[in-house]
Write a structure and sequence with these properties.
Structural class of chain B: mainly alpha
Mean pLDDT of chain B: 90
Number of domains of chain B: 1
Chains: A mainly alpha (358), B mainly alpha (305), C alpha/beta (533)
Helix content of chain C: 25-40%
Structural class of chain C: alpha/beta
CATH topology of the largest domain in chain C: Rossmann fold
Oligomer: heterotrimer
Distance between the termini of chain B: 66 Å
Helix content of chain B: over 70%
CATH class of chain B: Mainly Alpha
Mean pLDDT of chain C: 87
CATH topology of chain B: ABC transporter involved in vitamin B12 uptake, BtuC
Number of strands of chain C: 23
CATH superfamily of the largest domain in chain C: P-loop containing nucleotide triphosphate hydrolases
Number of strands of chain B: 0
CATH architecture of chain B: Orthogonal Bundle
Shape of chain C: globular
CATH architecture of the largest domain in chain C: 3-Layer(aba) Sandwich
């Protein structure tokens, strides 16, 4: 019989090892799944996880995809530390894109260099506003932020759909549901010639540094950690729980909004009915896989970005359905959560009555 | 205006919510919060559709949907109850996984159409005007949804196993001290919740819109979760909530017919906005929530000493 | 789980006088947890109808042993014999089938359910609720344990809750009743009533295993005692023949050094002034505070005695600022300043420190390091932060200071709080507050669940702090502790507080009456009664 035995302490080694084990187990599952689908598992894994990294273009695309994941993941990981479960980042991302994009569309004939900063600030404020709604409903009415933030995601996506099908549709766009192209002054500068790698990537790195300062040096980060681990102790210390809920959701919403505006003003260049392959949800996995630690989030963002790119390459090269990506992401999170038990418990074999302590 | 067809469509829109919320109610009463309802519904939907369209048997589809939901729930149960993983995170993972695997399996079934589940009209009484078709002219799953919620209401309030289930959700430490197998009871509750979510999905792909589309649940799993809170964990109010939301969903389909000129996207927002509204209305009374919510919900139980 | 050895069982029986065969015999029961052997080869016997005490300090292994007897835990090795036959008890249901009943220290009750449902859940085979209700009424009246089967548990006092636990054991006609520290939640008078019930049961032939660390009770009630220390049996005796002092030294394993009490100067200055404090509890299962008034002077320790669940938690929250009273900010004054509307951090900045009852998760965060836990309450006064940033160097050295000043046994300031034993963590928490040199210290259950050595250190530190001019308020259920360290005493009952009395001028009996009977007094004064539920 297998049973779990409390360590009484947190194992640092397992806390770092568990994501690695989870990734390895996910790859093994990949072999099984590919074989079951009748594909050569070696080739499939190579196409999925290695081939994208063999070209400079592939690497820059990886960074392009990692940018929103890291930006959102940093915000979520800080909130999750405080048990503020903002799972509506996808909606905050969308509103960020709508507000920033709306400004860009409104000034489509401008070449003022201030346009881009205004677009970016608009995106951040949009995301913060969308994050503020669950914060308000939670602190004022005690409404569960998981459900409210998620419901708001559906609302945001429908709002975007309405805008690009209706008032913001490109007048010269042959009735396609898409906005006109943003003016050059609203577009983020490209960091690497002949690629789509834009300013957003640099901002993501900045967010990692900022997140690290908040969590390991700042008093507010300490307060977030305490309220997450022991709410009564936070109350005893005199930390305001409401303030921390607001902080988490505004920060998470703002970073998701920034990610949204960076996506449309950096990568896409216009508003479309669908601007995200689920970055806001994948970022939840990124946050957990990264141990809710900023540096971990950076690494996890790169890994999850690889799963997106790999999925695209595998679709073209060996005809794997795009849905495999989502499947892998879910499996990875399962294994991670399963392995995480080892940070607090050790596994013992044998019947409970027989095992003898020292 | 003829209300009978409207009410009939309300029933079809409400049934999946009723199934999913019934299952989640039992799961939460045992002290477990499973946020993976959306994922379990999707997997139930594709499993039911795949089996029904391959075998041609709606009944086989229903069984497959329930079974698929149960399998999904067993993954959740293993991670949270045996491996002691965080319930919130695991529920989210279950939904992400469910979206992925249902899309993968469903890739081969997009564009297929299916005969909707047959109506089981009860002879004679189903011919009674108005109430006949509404009460006695439904398909088997609609009847089953009512049987299930009645059974759950009876189980929770009238039976000893129901009392034990509630005791486990109320205080797992006390229940453990009295010798009740907390983990086993929670496994059963979670698996039941999975089966119900699977049936909810099966209803969507076999009866509501008899076809498969990626993400066809469109947030209904999450609405079902909100319904349980709205119902303050009481079966009677689960029915009320499910039908209220069914009616709101149907509103958007009939709005244009009734000459209301609002962009369809705004009409589609209604169920989500209504969910937020009812959550706010019910949650603002903290005392009410605390009195009715199972005290151990979401808490990890580890019986080491 | 039982490793049966016939030879062993025979040897055990052979040595006994045959007139009363043991009902329960434990032979070399051993149980280990990671890092600790909780029960190390424990053997003793209980005869039918015997009231047998199991004595020992916190951490001596009493609870573990009892859980093994009741089937909650399995032993690693050793034999348990029931009526002479080696028996396996795989779970509580099996224990109940044998005739073993258990009254837990932390009640295993369900707050949101009725008394009857709670009792029904503990019966192995009870399905007919109407018949059960009848039996509950019969048993509770015949043993003097009045209970209303239809009341919800959350509306009952702690004493009444204990009655549920006892009645549900009695309904199964137990042959052995185990009680774990039953009097810790009772007034002295209620305890005396309980003893009468237990003697009645003993006369009817039911054996009783009575777990306690209160030696006077054991002397008054029990005819045999097994004393545990560090997981081992250190003595078996007849408590009626022993002195309390002698048994205490066996329990602790060393000579008792009474705490020093040099009568320091109590000045006339009031540092804590509570006047007509009334607060409705935030918890619907909690107690409302009603018109509470008292003062604590510079250099004085005031004790708040009372049975658990009479408003102590609420009083602590109101004083520490976890509950704020914005409408009556003047109801609490520290050194003359109204603090009723301040949060805990703001009150700390004024020189007041607090130690709540619960160590894990309230006074300390168990997965965080001792350093981080130092920062939790010492950040402002010890200047451990600057410009919104933590000063890790200063935090670390403050934590080290606490560790060495209070002799906290740990691997260092980076150890997680949860890795410390109860006594060491409590020393760390109390030290963290005392080293901030507070002018006011409010502490709840300072030595609850702490070993005798740590308890002595903590009590001495509190008295030394008072001598340096601090006003100390001690909320405690342990009357011995209050009589040992306090200068004056008040009693809290149903959210109200009695007139303060000098500790020399009041007897335990009087305190007991106040603990149980204060509400009668108030009702005659005409104060409005508390609504139930």
């Amino acid at each position: 019989m297998v049973r779990l035995e409390s360590r009484g302490d947190v194992s640092r080694a397992w806390s770092l090892l568990s994501p690695v084990v989870a990734i390895v187990l996910t790859l093994i599952s990949g072999v099984v799944i590919f074989s079951a689908m009748g594909k050569d598992p070696g080739l499939a894994l190579y196409t999925y996880f290695v081939q994208p990294l063999t070209t400079a273009f592939g690497v820059t695309e990886l960074l392009v995809k990692a940018t929103p994941l890291v930006l959102i993941g940093i915000g979520l990981s800080i909130g999750f530390r405080a048990n503020v479960w903002n799972i509506g980042a996808e909606g905050q991302f969308t509103i960020g894109a709508i507000v920033g994009g709306g400004i860009a569309i409104a000034f489509h004939d401008s070449d003022n260099f201030l346009l881009l900063p205004v677009v970016m600030i608009g995106g951040i404020l949009g995301g913060m506003a969308w994050g503020a709604v669950p914060a308000f409903l939670k602190t004022r009415f005690n409404a569960n932020e998981i459900l409210t933030s998620l419901m708001l995601t559906y609302v945001a996506v429908l709002l975007l759909s309405y805008l690009v099908h209706g008032p913001w549709r490109d007048p010269d766009g042959y009735n396609f549901p898409e906005s006109r192209l943003f003016p050059a002054a609203a577009m983020m500068p490209v960091l690497w010639e002949d690629s789509r790698l834009h300013l957003g990537a640099a901002l993501a790195v900045l967010a990692v540094v900022g997140g690290w300062v908040i969590l390991s040096r700042a008093v507010i980060g300490f307060q977030l950690r305490v309220v997450g681990q022991a709410p009564a102790a936070a109350k005893h210390a005199g930390f305001s729980q409401n303030k921390l809920i607001w902080f988490s959701l505004l920060l998470g919403g703002g970073l998701a909004g920034l990610a949204g505006v960076a996506e449309v003003a950096g990568t896409i260049g216009q508003l479309l009915p669908s601007i995200s392959p689920g970055y806001g949800f994948t970022a939840i996995i990124v946050a957990f896989l990264g141990r809710l630690h900023p540096v971990g989030v950076l690494l996890a963002g790169l890994i999850m970005a690889l799963s997106y790119i790999g999925g695209e390459v595998a679709q073209i090269e060996i005809g794997l359905p795009a849905a495999v990506t989502g499947l892998f992401q879910g499996i990875l999170l399962f294994f991670l959560l399963g392995c995480d038990v080892l940070t607090h418990y050790r596994i013992r074999f044998g019947a409970p009555g027989r095992a003898r302590g020292s | 205006m003829d209300f009978v067809p409207v009410i009939l469509t309300v029933i079809t829109a409400s049934t999946p919510l009723l199934f999913a919320a019934t299952g989640e109610l039992v799961t939460e009463k045992s002290g477990v919060l499973n946020l993976g309802v959306e994922g379990m519904m999707l997997v139930g939907a594709i499993a039911a559709f795949a089996v029904a369209s391959t075998t041609g048997s709606g009944l086989a589809g229903i069984v497959a949907g329930a079974a698929a939901g149960t399998v999904m729930a067993s993954v959740f149960a293993f991670l949270t109850l045996t491996m002691l993983a965080n319930q919130v995170a695991t529920g989210l993972a279950l939904t992400i996984f469910g979206i992925g695997i249902s899309a993968l399996i469903g890739a081969g079934f997009v564009g297929f159409a299916l005969e909707p589940l047959p109506k089981l009209a009860i002879p004679v009484i189903s011919d009674i005007p108005v109430i006949g078709p509404i009460l006695f002219g439904q398909d088997i799953l609609v009847y089953l949804s009512f049987v299930m919620i009645l059974a759950v209401a009876w189980f929770l309030s009238r039976t000893r196993p129901g009392l034990i289930l509630k005791a486990v959700g109320e205080s797992h430490d006390s229940a453990h001290a009295l010798g009740y197998p907390v983990i086993a009871i929670r496994y059963a509750a979670v698996l039941f919740g999975g089966a119900m979510s699977g049936l909810a999905g099966a209803y969507l792909s076999l009866a509501y819109t008899p076809l498969w589309a990626e993400n066809m649940t469109a947030g209904r799993g999450w609405i079902a979760l909100a319904l349980v809170v709205f119902a303050t964990w009481r079966p009677g109010r689960v029915v009320l909530g499910a039908y209220m939301f069914g009616a709101i969903t149907i509103l958007q389909l009939h709005a244009q017919g009734w000459g209301i000129e609002i962009a369809s996207q705004f009409m589609s927002m209604l169920p989500y906005l209504a969910t937020i509204l009812v959550l706010v209305l019910i949650s603002r009374d903290k005392t009410k929530i605390r009195l009715n919510a199972p005290q151990c919900i979401g808490k990890v139980f580890h019986a080491a000493h | 789980m039982t490793q049966q050895s016939d030879e062993m069982a025979e040897k055990q029986d052979g040595g006994e006088v045959p007139d009363a065969a043991p009902l329960l015999a434990l032979d070399r029961i051993t149980k280990a947890f990671p890092g600790i052997v909780a029960n190390d080869s424990i053997s003793f016997q209980i005869k039918p109808g015997e009231i047998h005490a199991l004595l020992g300090e916190n951490g001596a292994g009493k609870s573990t042993l009892v859980k093994i007897i009741y089937g909650v835990l399995g032993a690693d090795s050793g034999t348990l014999s029931w009526n002479g036959a080696p028996t396996a008890i795989p779970g509580p249901a099996a224990a109940r089938d044998l005739g073993i009943g258990m009254v837990f220290q932390h009640f295993s009750l369900f707050e949101a359910m009725t008394v009857l449902e709670n009792i029904g859940l503990a019966m192995n085979d009870q399905r007919d609720m109407t018949a059960l209700k009848q039996r509950v009424i019969e048993v509770s009246t015949s043993y003097g344990l009045p209970l209303d089967p239809d009341r919800h548990v959350h509306s009952l006092s702690v004493g009444e809750r204990q009655r549920i636990e006892i009645v549900r054991c009695l309904l199964q006609n137990p042959k052995l009743l185990i009680l774990d520290e039953p009097t810790s939640v009772l007034t002295p008078q209620e305890a005396e009533k309980l003893f009468e019930t237990l003697r009645q049961l003993s006369d009817e032939g039911c054996a009783i295993l009575y777990i306690s660390h209160k030696l006077d009770e054991v002397k008054a009630l029990c005819e045999a005692a097994t004393i545990l220390r560090g997981g081992k049996v250190v003595a078996t005796c007849d408590p009626r023949q022993e002195t309390a002092q002698g048994m205490a030294e066996l329990m602790i394993g060393q000579k008792l050094t009474p705490t020093r009490r040099d009568g320091g100067e109590v000045s006339r200055t009031d540092r804590i002034m509570v006047s007509r404090l009334s607060i409705a509890s935030e918890d619907q299962f909690g107690i409302d505070l009603r018109e509470i008034s008292f003062k604590v002077r510079r250099g004085e320790i005031l004790g708040v005695a009372g049975v658990a669940g009479n408003g102590q938690t609420e009083l602590m929250s109101a004083l520490s600022g976890e509950i704020q009273n914005r409408r009556q900010p003047d109801s609490i004054r520290f050194d003359g300043l109204s603090v009723g509307s301040l949060n805990p951090a703001e009150r700390r900045a004024l020189g007041a420190n607090f130690v709540p009852e619960e160590r894990n998760g309230h006074a300390a965060v168990k997965d965080m390091s001792l350093s981080d836990n130092a920062f939790l309450t010492a950040a402002t006064r010890m200047k451990l932060m600057a410009n919104g940033m933590m000063r890790h160097g200063e935090i670390r050295s403050f934590a080290d200071k606490v560790i060495s000043a209070f002799d906290v046994r740990t691997t260092g300031a980076e150890a997680a709080a949860g890795s410390l034993s109860g006594g060491n963590l409590q020393k760390y928490i109390v030290g963290r507050e005392i080293l901030q040199e507070p002018g006011i210290l409010i502490i709840s259950q300072p030595t609850w669940g702490v070993d005798a050595g740590a308890a002595a250190t903590i009590r001495q530190a509190l008295m030394d702090l008072a001598r340096r001019g601090c006003a100390v308020l001690v909320i405690s259920q342990d009357l011995d502790e209050i009589f040992e360290i306090c200068d004056r005493i008040v009693v809290i009952s149903e959210g109200m507080v009695s007139e303060p009395r000098d500790i020399e001028a009041i007897t335990v009996e009087e305190v007991g009456l106040l603990m149980g009977g204060l509400h009668d007094l108030a009702d005659t004064v005409g104060s409005e009664g508390r609504a139930n539920g």
